[in-house]
Amino acid sequence: MHFSSCLCALLVALVYQVSGMDTVIGLYGETIEVPCNNGAPKPKDLFMTKWKYDDGDLLTQLKDQDASVIATDKYKDRVSMAENSSLLIAAATLKDEKTFTCMVVAGADISEYPVKLLIHKAPTGVEITALATELEIGKPTQLGQCRTSDANPAASITWFKNKKPLVADGKGIIISSNVKVDEATGLTTTSSTLQYTAEKGDTAALFTCGALNTLSSPVSFTVTYPTERISLHVISKGPLMEGANMTLKCKADGNPPPTSFNFHILGKVVKVENSDSYTVTDVTRESTGEYKCSIIDNAKMEDSKNITINYLDMSLSPSGKVMKSFGEGLALTLQTHASGELKVSWTKDNGKLDSSPKFDKLTYSDSGKYEVVVTMGALIKKDSFELVVEGVPVIRRVAKRRSEDGQHKVLTCEAEGSPKPTVAWSVNGTSADESPYVNGKITHKLTIVPTVNLTVVCTVSNEHGQDTRTINVSTLFEEVRMDKQDSSDEGDTTKLVVGVIVGLLLATVVVGLAYWLYMKKSKQGSWKTGEKEDGSTEESKKLEEKIEEKLEENSQKVEV
């Protein structure tokens, strides 16, 4: 009695506090944790924690003791208390959507923390049923029904076309939805019906529907619409040219497309059934003209196309292997006939030529393989001929020189001719060297050691004839002696010239000195005898003229 009075007095003294309500969302069928006081730490002076709901208490826990389950209804075996005082509810169902309250007694305070519990469940799947067999342009058609089940809250369904959501406009797109609730589980099933008016571009469109993050499998539909336009197409492998096959294809924009057509082939009508194509074989340049195609049951719906059959004719003269003689002319003729603009190019031995070759006077360098290529767009024609220029060999030059070591003579014979000339010398040499045979030219070198003076003959020959040239070759000993003699003669000549110059200079000095002495004596005599100076002056002038002539003559000799 005394303890009860004290407990009542304690409870009366407590301050009662109620906090605002929190909301917790749990998943259907899972264990749900409902936090007490939003998960705040336990107070230090905690006395008791208790969980309850509108229909009664669930469980309670005194400080430092295990929680005790008080519930006797459906929660008896499904509730427990976590270490942090949270309420744990196992196997949650929609019937657990209630308000649960955590009451905490600490010191002189009693606090309550109500928590509203909501149970969610994602739909089990999304699928489209009741599919339309086809869609007709401009006609509203029920495309299908999208359905998703076992959801809470009820799922919202969205329709998509090519991954873009469709929005109902009450005209071309009409969407209606329906929700049913399972009485046993409380879960919902949502269905949505799409009525759609198709367009021509919907032929390959993919339709899906989805709820939350779940999408149905995509579906497509055959969209039907009448033919409004046809087009004629030409199909061929490469350019249309004579001898090729040409396929005409008539395409219609209707769906399904027509299966029978009329083809107008240069005024002739050909009826084709169960196909949209017709092949014209082995076309010629006369096949150029207007072609048409039309629908059998509507002749006014047609298309036409002007078709040109390309052709390229080419004739080259000469052709094959052409044999010609040196110095002759060769007439080259290229004739072309084509349906378009041409491009002509020439090559000689695979090397490109800047212009067409001309052969007014053939040389050996004109020999080679000539190829002409004529193109018109993708059309290409080629022809070629091989020109061989032949003639009697001719020696263009013979020469001689001393080798670098001074111990040999090197003879050179340069010749032209075709076929390749054979070179022969009238003497034997220590070594022979022949250059490559290019453009009818060949150079042959022979190294010899002549012991006597020789006249050497170079002979070149082929099947058309021969040519010879001679060259005089002296011995190496004779050339050395002559070199020394030439050197000695040059020294003696130099000495002689120097002596002559010195002698002339001395003579000039002597003559000048004699003249000076003479003039001196002449003047002294005239002073003494009293003779007139006119006569002596005249004689003096004559003497001076003779001396000047002598000096000039000596000067000319020195220059020589």
UniProtKB/TrEMBL annotation:
Question: Bias regions of kind Basic and acidic residues — which residues?
Answer: 529-560
Q: Where in this protein does the record put region Disordered?
A: 522-560
Keywords, alphabetical: Adaptive immunity, Cell adhesion, Cell membrane, Cell projection, Disulfide bond, Glycoprotein, Immunity, Immunoglobulin domain, Membrane, Repeat, Signal, Transmembrane, Transmembrane helix
Q: Where in the cell is it found?
A: Cell membrane; Cell projection, Axon; Cell projection, Dendrite
Membrane spanning stretches = 496-518
Where is the Ig-like domain positioned along the sequence? 29-104, 123-220, 226-308, 393-474
User: Does the keyword field hold Transmembrane helix?
Assistant: yes
Q: What is the protein's given name?
A: Activated leukocyte cell adhesion molecule b
Instruction: Please name one Pfam family that this protein belongs to.
Output: C2-set_2
Return the GO cellular component terms, semicolon-separated: axon; dendrite; plasma membrane
Please list which residues make up the signal peptide: 1-20
Q: GO biological process: what's one of them?
A: adaptive immune response
Q: Which SMART domains match?
A: IG, IGc2
Q: Which gene encodes it?
A: LOC115206394
Xref: InterPro entries = CD80_C2-set (IPR013162), Ig-like_dom (IPR007110), Ig-like_dom_sf (IPR036179), Ig-like_fold (IPR013783), Ig_sub (IPR003599), Ig_sub2 (IPR003598), Immunoglobulin_dom (IPR013151), Surface_Rcpt/Adhesion_Mol (IPR051116)
- PROSITE patterns the UniProt entry points to: IG_LIKE (PS50835)
The main location is: membrane
**Membrane-topology annotation of the record:** Single-pass type I membrane protein
